[in-house]
Amino acid sequence: MGSSKVDEKVHLFVYQKESGQRLDKYLVEQLPEYSRARLQALIDSRLVQVAGQPAFKSGQMLEKGQEISVRIPPPAPANVQPENIPIDVVFENQDLLVINKPAGMVVHPAVGHPSGTLVNAVLGYDPDMEGVGGEERPGVVHRLDKGTSGLIILAKNDHALHWLQEQFSTRQAEKTYLALVDGRPPTPVGRVEAAIGRDPGHRKQMAIRPAGRGREAVSEYKTIENFSNHSLLEIHPLTGRTHQIRLHCAFLDCPVVGDTVYGHKKPTIEMDRYFLHALRLNIRLPAATIPQLFEASLPVDLEVILAGLRSKI
Fold first, then answer.
1. Is residue 288, in this structure, part of any structural domain at all?
2. How many Cβ atoms sit within 10 Å of the Cβ of residue 83?
3. Which of 72, 98, 122 delimits the end of a domain?
4. Which of the listed residues 69, 89, 241, 313 has the most CB atoms within 10 Å of its CB?
5. Do 80 and 206 lie in a common domain?
6. What's the domain count of the chain?
């Protein structure tokens, strides 16, 4: 993947399959973060090229060896408004903010969440961050799901944004999560390699997909504590796919407690969220030669659940 401008993304692929496949179907597999409708709109706008020529239709059949490029234009200005929302700042310098995000807060405005997001709160805290990265998500280096609490880092300037994003994309940033799961994983310590892509039956959800049908996703885990019917896991995602930890835990047949999307429809422990917390982040800050470790302790509601489980041992 390359980029022709700071604010325009260009994805490059070479079609390797022996048999032909529809262009739009192939792109959905390769770019699961975009809907088929969005990709078809890019094709109609002549922003997708096949073998050096603009694609002529979504159903165009691909042939082995053809190069495909997809230009993603910068999003239209979203006019995100600053809001006076309290945030828990763990660390701050001239380049970035490290924030302990509460569960229930969406990171950036989107359909259904036009306000009240972390980005709205950050712009209220530091209005100068508006426009960092030239996108509708000012300063956002990586994301946490709405229901996940814990550490998230935001950049205050374009240099810091690119510096930090590079460490996430090259897997230099080390992330550690705590998850309480139902049952126990097959081994106390392990590694999950299971590709993730858009769920064909539920377009708003992700799913474990066959090799070649999703993007590489790798997680490592170790068991911290065992209870009668649950386990507390420390999880290190080596990639950053949407819903990766929740899907990989479900793949191991030990879904995250409270995850009614990928786990049990009726939670085994009554709670208002799922039990997933971004505990630690180890990352090299701009101009630094060694990484710096940040940590956010478990929120009170999750500590109460653990205390309840421990009292029954």
1. no
2. 15
3. 72
4. 241
5. no
6. 3
Residue 133 CB contacts under 8 Å (≥ 6 apart), including other chains: 6, 7, 139, 140, 155, 158, 161
Residue 200 lies in a domain: yes
User: Is 289 inside a domain boundary?
Assistant: no
**Are residues 105 and 9 located together in one domain of the fold?**
no
The single residue of 24, 126, 145, 259 carrying the catalytic annotation is 145
List the structure tokens of 218: 């790798």
Q: What is the CATH number of the domain that holds 18?
A: 3.10.290.10
- Domain span holding position 29: 2-72
**306 and 200 housed in the same domain:** yes
**Does the annotation count 145 as an active-site position?**
yes
What tens-digit pLDDT sequence spans the chain (313 residues)? Answer: 444 344 678 999 999 999 999 999 999 899 887 777 778 888 988 899 999 999 988 899 999 999 999 998 765 555 788 999 999 999 999 999 999 999 999 998 877 788 899 999 999 999 888 778 755 678 899 999 999 999 999 999 988 998 999 899 889 999 999 999 999 999 999 999 999 998 988 878 999 999 888 899 999 999 999 999 999 999 999 999 999 999 999 999 999 999 999 999 999 999 999 999 999 999 999 989 999 999 999 999 999 999 999 998 7
Residue 199, domain CATH: 3.30.2350.10
Burial class (CB in 10 A: 0-12, 13-18, 19+), 254: buried
Q: Are residues 185 and 306 in the same domain?
A: yes
